[in-house]
Write a structure and sequence with these properties.
This protein folds into two domains: 6-194 and 212-253 and 286-356 and 421-433, Deoxyribonuclease I, Chain A (4-Layer Sandwich), CATH 3.60.10.10; 361-407, no CATH class. It has eleven helices and 18 strands. The chain has helices spanning 39-54, 80-90, 175-194, 198-203, 210-220, 237-242, 255-266, 270-280, 331-335, 356-359, 371-375, and strands at residues 6-17, 71-77, 95-98, 110-116, 120-128, 139-146, 151-159, 224-229, 245-246, 285-286, 313-315, 320-322, 325-329, 340-342, 348-349, 396-399, 404-407, 427-433. The strands form five sheets. Strands 1, 2, 3, 4, 14, 15 and 18 form a seven-stranded mixed β-sheet that branches.
Amino acid sequence: MTHQKDIKIAFWNVGNLFDIEKNEIATDFEFTPEKGWTTEVRNIKVENLSKIIKSMKYNEENESMEYGPDLLGLCEVENKNILEKLIEKINPDKYAIAQYNDSPDLRGIDTCLVYSKYKFDCLVTNAYNIDFRYPTRNIFQAHLKVKENDSDLYVLVNHWPSRRGKYEACQPNDTAQARNTVAEKCGKIIDTLLKVPTEEVYKMPHIFNKDHIMKLDCELNKNILLMGDFNDDPYDESVTRYLNAVFDIRYCKEWKEIFELRAREEKSSMDVSFRKYYLEEPVCLYNPMMKLVADPYSVGNIDIDPNVPGGTIYYWKTKRWSLFHQFIISQGLYRGKQKLKFRSNSIKILYEGLRLVDNLSYDKFNDNMNEYYYLDKTKIHPSLKDNPTEFVFQKKYYNDNTKQYEIDKNFPRGRETNSGYSDHFPIMCILDVLDN
């Protein structure tokens, strides 16, 4: 077995990867055999996803050794059984599941993490539920040990609340409030990883000295990797304000500089105030995804290749691309402080082979906006050609008049049954494994 001195990472919202057994707690009964989600359909969906995951290429120059991730975060997976079926199709000898936890989500979809047994040992896992009045997805965390150099990596897999209406929230359809709440919870988890416990801070003497700062910075520089479908863009307030993830690494400072700046601003004594500053200051994370944002209506990069999709999902409500899939990291992981270093130029959206234009012939697209177009279910407007090829199957519905399940004739334009992958594109990146 040849070990590369890097770690290849991917995250993907695989789009409704359901098993066929009815979940009596979940409210989403769309994916059942009675409604067309049969064993055959499920297996085809798994096969389609596995082909993409196995083909993920990270290095153009050395194709024979660079396929497939070493670390794979997923969301919208129903249970451990369906995840195991996916791993069987990818490579059961290579991959293991970091403890699968069923979340209380009403649709029964979970976040999970798959890792290479050749690269990692999985030490500890946690699943953090969100304290809403209604059940939702949890935040999954895993503490991994890198075998190559004995370094530690903490991974948090996220799937924040949907942008669709949540009448159970504080205000009808106030979906931003729900994501802000989850972001605050995620930030609190980050603080427990990157800051020493409060009781230890109280035990430190008032005197500001080098030994204290070294201890605090050692915690601050741990290797933290967040991945997920945040249902918000990198510039939305849930990410920037509540999670405190910034676009400019210069805003991520170590504690000595933070304390000095705070004391100067408030004209206070460092010897008295540094413990107060430490407890008040939220940990700052770095978000490297902004360079991929292609939204000229916000603060994104408008000089993007027009042939490349401008995000991971074409959001139906805004009719624009959104970058809901993101990697967010600790400053220690960015700077390589503890034997792992984020490779900044490695981030990519995997769209090749996953777009509608890659999977459908050109005669399936038609921009003739006349009556025939609206009636013809076999045609797709060409402006949607770069959209992800969502998995579709022949759905059935229960007819109250006939008391039978009947085929739903409203099938997506230009598609064949049991084809496609997900309504999101995956994202990929690389960590370098350092010698010291």
